[in-house]
């Protein structure tokens, strides 16, 4: 037996530099479980179809059990000479069980093998992400429930706009992440088909049974075209696109946390275990975790762009370019997983400062729209009401007071339609209670929305 896998056709071995350049073992060894799982399903099918003997299958199963134990215990020696996870495991199998190990690759290529491994890995990864996303959402809804009545300013253009409740704001985050969950679940559906059987690119001459391999590995079906089966990385791109969107959401969430925890806002405090201090300024408590999440969003965008660019110039079928799919994919998955894990905890470490939220609400004429709506209800066309209230706001601003602090007589100077009942409309509670429709900010609606959201929590 020759020293390297394809020595038959070659007259000299690869140069050391080329070996290092072309090897993927340093990063693809994390696919080892999926690789062994796929190999066992393939070998069992070969035996069922009488392509290999029952004795060969028994040897392969015994060898793979030993390899699993060796990798788990850290004894397994990964070799750069053997390029990637597939050849490392196959070589060790042959060392352990002889010819049966050499028969494993019958009717298979690393091209359909690696595509299968990545799909298996991604499926498990998506399930873990969906589970973490659900945990985050559960804690988010728990907090929203506690804060369903806590008024805070809603902003547009970062200017105080109208009252909402903190619970209502958290429900917006819930909706964002619920869509993320749907996108991952959708990507999973398309990833969950079996490439094996495509072999190098054209299928194989052996009487294989692809459906049974798909069923054994829990795939919903088989890739329909052998060329596409080994070339397609859409599923990895889709995953990274979903990851990029999720990170965009967490970056926006982070930005709000950072703002809210500045003394200028003071809306929340984040537990010390999620903050860091300064090496020079003794007073500092910095929101490093949300800031890093905001920063790490950039690398996940980069992962997506890397994959899209990797694929755009490739003719069918397999090209070695594809080996570059793994690092961005792993990086996006790891970043999303860590981010979700940490945010599920941060939510439990948020302490709200309702008084600061209320104080902020008093500073931006947050119920001005309510006054316009009040006048409109009394018959004034909305555009006229808008102008009247604008004048009232200008007056209040000159006096340095909020709208409800203007005397009734002062308000009536702007419109004779204004009566005593105006003050209900001008209070924060009145403004909130009036937004009583699906999706609105009233505490009653927020509670109902939380109830509905509980049934929509993301799960694998
Ligand atoms: N390590 C390779 C990859 O990740 C496996 C497939 C290699 N196939 C080939 N024809 N060189 O894509």
Describe this structure in words.
The protein is mainly alpha-helical and 460 residues long. It has 3 domains: 13-106, Orthogonal Bundle (Fumarase C, Chain B, domain 1), CATH 1.10.275.10; 111-149 and 165-206 and 224-354, Fumarase C, Chain A, domain 2 (Up-down Bundle), CATH 1.20.200.10; 360-451, Orthogonal Bundle (Ribonucleotide Reductase Protein R1, domain 1). Helices cover 61% and strands 5% of the residues. The chain contains 20 helices and 6 strands. It has helices at residues 16-22, 25-28, 32-48, 54-73, 85-97, 99-103, 110-146, 166-191, 210-216, 226-231, 234-260, 288-312, 326-348, 354-361, 368-377, 382-399, 408-412, 422-426, 428-434, 443-454, and strands spanning 151-156, 159-165, 193-194, 221-222, 268-270, 350-352. Strands 1-2 form a two-stranded antiparallel ribbon. A two-stranded parallel ribbon has the order 3-4. A hairpin with a 2-residue loop joins strand 1 (151-156) and strand 2 (159-165). The longest helix has 37 residues, at 110-146. The two termini are 47 Å apart. The structure holds arginine. Arginine is lined by residues 24, 28, 84, 110-111, 114, 318, 320, 322-323.
